[in-house]
Amino acid sequence: MDYEQSSDIHTVAIIGLGLIGGSLARDLHARGVRVLGADQNADDLAAAVREKVVERLADDFADIGQADVVVLAVPVRAALKLLRTLAPRLADVRLITDVGSTKASIVRAAEELGLGDRFVGSHPIAGDHTSGWSASRVNLFADARVFLTPAPSASGRAIQLADALWRLTRPVPQTMDAAAHDRRVAWTSHLPQIVSSALGCTLAGENIAWSELGPGGKSVTRLAGSSPEMWTDIALDNAAQLVPALKAMEARLRQIRGLIANGKDTALNHLLADARTWHTPAS
Amino acid sequence: MDYEQSSDIHTVAIIGLGLIGGSLARDLHARGVRVLGADQNADDLAAAVREKVVERLADDFADIGQADVVVLAVPVRAALKLLRTLAPRLADVRLITDVGSTKASIVRAAEELGLGDRFVGSHPIAGDHTSGWSASRVNLFADARVFLTPAPSASGRAIQLADALWRLTRPVPQTMDAAAHDRRVAWTSHLPQIVSSALGCTLAGENIAWSELGPGGKSVTRLAGSSPEMWTDIALDNAAQLVPALKAMEARLRQIRGLIANGKDTALNHLLADARTWHTPAS
Asked: Were both Cys, which of A39, B46, B158, B166 would link to A45 (CB 3.0–4.6 Å)?
């Protein structure tokens, strides 16, 4: 599939113009796609309109049906609510997608609302600790992975359209089952986020300022700066997968603490070497 | 104190030409200081000599007495052994320092060996996950903090010389008690390192490759690539301070896991918001 085939995406409505939604809007706009936008934050929306990246959607979304594609780019649980609200207006839309970090619950909701044939979840792995329209930028997705999780009843046409949408921003999306997706990101994304925030809380509890850290400590705690609202949503939505991941992390820390407390240098060295081999297989 | 006063540092011997020792050698060489070098790794030493940054020290360190300053830039516990070996040859040396991440044990050893009057520990906060001569570079310390931990019997002249040594590489060193130093770095440096390595081990245990992580996960696990030997030494040497820090981190993870498992969104949001406020006070 090349860019040609995606040329039948004329109008995309994006609700939520934060880091992900805003960056998607910028890329689509740059490729000549008409972008309709909405955001709860009036300043962010005004800025996006002023920069001529998006045209304003009606407050009640009455005009959303003119879009070929609707993208929900709001926090995970907000997206669930929004999908229910919008459902009656989406009869003519050819693809409905989202950008959330968990996929099983939104896919389930789409099926329940009778939107499954046109729903394909998206998860671009491109977020960082910044947020809002001011953080959005062109080419954010250029080197990102994007996972697509079609609803069980999604049509081939809808999947093809989702694929074409993301190829407009460069990545080649990878399709996978929503539940498998959520299991995977619990480890690859949600666990690192919670670990980083937990370390931030731990240091805050000792009255150690972020500025007192060296470059390494700053790197480990970088995600502590992420949006609390967004991550509360993700963690609770994916609790079933995330809780075992957190338990595994706690067990590992306990194990290492035991080795340190008991002066087990060989075992500790092996364990740290395993971590390094994992991080830098070539070395 | 300006650079003039440090001009009486003519010759510095550096044992260990890795990231820290090698970078110090490069900076001192660039300022016209004669640098004598040694490294267990014959290739690294040969490269440093070939680049004309250092002259080779005798294998038995017989010529180390000609240095004004001796810098031990080897892992923490190796530095302890090395100090004992070198002690008889250091009678004419005006300053002995190290660059290790823990300070109480080396300061104690220096006192016991009768070197306390000329021993001032150094800890430049400039390490990252790279290592070896090939990782060393000029200006590594330009924006770094450097802590100085004088032995209890250190002379004012030795402290002044240590201060002058590091000012040659740019930073303005800060003097503090060795035990207070070790307590502090247990939280600011050693805890983030172990957390990053533990997360690496946890993900390795799930067969998740480092390359599967997004930018955030890569940031949190960056330190997992650090030298296992160096960090085994540091963790065991500073076990008394590090173990309570690890316990606090485990407790925080347990707390967050409980909130997630029980769907406590308000409390979880507050906690993640605390982490963000800590990370980004202005936001």
From this structure: A39
